[in-house]
Amino acid sequence: MRKSQVYKFPKSFMTVLEGHFCAKTYFTYKGEKFMLLANKKTKLFITALSLIAVIPTLNVSAMHIMEGYLPITHSIIWGIICIPFLILGGISIQKQTAKDSKTKILLALAGAFVFILSSLKIPSVTGSCSHPTGTGLGAILFGPSIMSVLGIIVLLFQSLLLAHGGITTLGANTFSMAIAGPFVSFGIYKLSRKLKIPFSVSVFLGAAIGDLVTYVVTSFQLALAFPDTNIFVSLAKFMGIFAATQLPIAIAEGILSVMIMGVLEKNCKNELQQLKVI
Asked: How big, in percent rounded to 5, are the helix, strand and coil portions of the chain?
């Protein structure tokens, strides 16, 4: 039986950016060009995200604000408040994809990032939980209005598939995680860049502070629905309980966002320049 031959490919590779969504690495062998699926760092990054994606399936009992927890009038009001942001986000997505169709892939990746991170749950206040949001990174890339659309899609899938959140609380969860958080993240990032703060620090501040604001808004929503002696006492209680778990989570999300932006800056610099991120 003939033994299979093992070829040793040359160590020299070349990377091509033009005409591709991200950098693609090639090697040549016997005059032919072969494409590697990813370089070593990108493979490690994809593997890490794949492992994270498995974690949400281990526990589906925790929620954003769970189904039926808010009074129906509150649920309706928060849903109505979200409508103009969703319309603006839909228009922004159409304009962005019409300008450059390649950004559809980056939009999908931003949505997947939000889905994965916001599915990692740490039980906190009764009727809710603490978890990273992932919306800050998308807001920095595409602007806050687009994240409202991606966020509500993520929240809808989570409520239907993972029992994470709910249909009646979809409006409230969308406002806190997909509207308030992204707008603050985007504003903090832009302000930091104007103040000449380094790029990585600006990304960290935008992602981390946006995450914290999401839970300030969630605490406010719960305080409105369930005031104690007054709304401010209730707000202080909710925020105090959330802070124990959310502060380290926000820091971790900021660091992860910086790492991912570093990968994008290295491999997708042209796209980031088109989006006016860098």
From this structure: 65, 5, 25
